[in-house]
Each structure stands twice: as structure tokens, then as C-alpha cells.
Amino acid sequence: MAALREDVPPLPDALSLLVTEHRRDHDVPAELRTTGTRRPITPAAEVCLLRTAREALTNAAKHAPGEPVAVELGYGEGAVRLVVRNAYAAGGAPPSSEHGLQGMRERLALAGGTLSAGPSDDLWEVRAEVPE
């Protein structure tokens, strides 16, 4: 397993690259904030959180083009949390398709994690959490 992961950066670094690419590719403000003490987590948890971030950023670009995106990776006691927030597009609505969200939810469940997604104030929020 370690040999397969040799060229894969740690989760915070991989998320930073993903957010930088999103900012560049979509010409929107996008930022990553990491809180808590950075530490290694299981490969399954890393993959789930990275794929969740990728899907959430894809959804933000599709459903709220031009709107800023904020990504937060939080290391808490016994769990790691990923939150992706973006404003709705002007005149737009939150994502109505559950297919992408259901896929994220199923992937996270396989790693013992959870997913919630929906409106939070004037933002759309995707929140994923995996245990350590």
C-alpha cells in the first residue's frame, strides 16, 4: 500500500492543489483553511475526503459558476472534517441532483464517515467527517 501512495501528497497538500486548480480553472476566489493539529489519517479516509472535495468543487462550478468557494479541513478529537461552502449563483438555486451527493455519502460510509449537504445561511454547504 505504501508503494502505491509514494507519489500521493498528504491530504492537506492534495486539497491545496485541488483548490488552486479550481481557482485557476474557474477564475474564482477559492481558499483552503486547515485547523487543528495536522496528522496522518487512514488512506481510506484520505481518499474519501479528497474525492468528496473534488465532487463538491465540481458541483460548485456547475451550480454556482463565478461564486467564491471556501474549503476547510479540520482535525478534531477522533475525527477529521471537511467542509466546502459556496454561495448560490445569482438567481440560481442549490443543487437539486442527489446522484453526486449519494455517491459521496456511500463512499464516506464505507470509511465509517458521514456526509451532510444543504443550505446554511446564504451558502450551500457540504460537510464530511471521518473517524480516525
Structure description:
By secondary structure, this protein is α+β, with helices and mostly antiparallel strands. Helices cover 37% and strands 29% of the residues. β4 (114-120) and β5 form a beta hairpin. α1 (11-26) runs parallel beside α2 (43-63) and α2 runs antiparallel to α3 (99-110). The model has no long low-confidence stretch (mean pLDDT 86).
Features:
132 residues, alpha+beta, five-stranded mixed sheet
Note the run of SSEs as H and E. HEHEEHEE
**On the 0-100 scale, what is the average pLDDT?**
86
Strand order of the largest sheet: 1-2-3-5-4
Sheet of most strands: 5 strands, mixed
**Helical stretch tally:** 3
Task: Give me the count of strands.
Answer: 5
Outline the low-pLDDT stretches: none
**C-alpha geometry:** globular
| Strand proportion | 25-35%
Going by helix content, strand content and strand pairing, the class is: alpha+beta
Calculate the terminal CA-CA distance, rounded to whole Å. Answer: 18 Å
Q: Helicity, in percent?
A: 25-40%
Rg, alpha carbons: 14 Å
Summarize the structure.
With 132 residues, the chain is an alpha+beta fold. It is built from three helices and five strands, in the order H-E-H-E-E-H-E-E. The chain has helices at 11-26, 43-63, 99-110; strands at residues 30-35, 69-75, 79-87, 114-120, 123-131.
Please describe the topology of this protein.
Layout: H1 11-26, E1 30-35, H2 43-63, E2 69-75, E3 79-87, H3 99-110, E4 114-120, E5 123-131
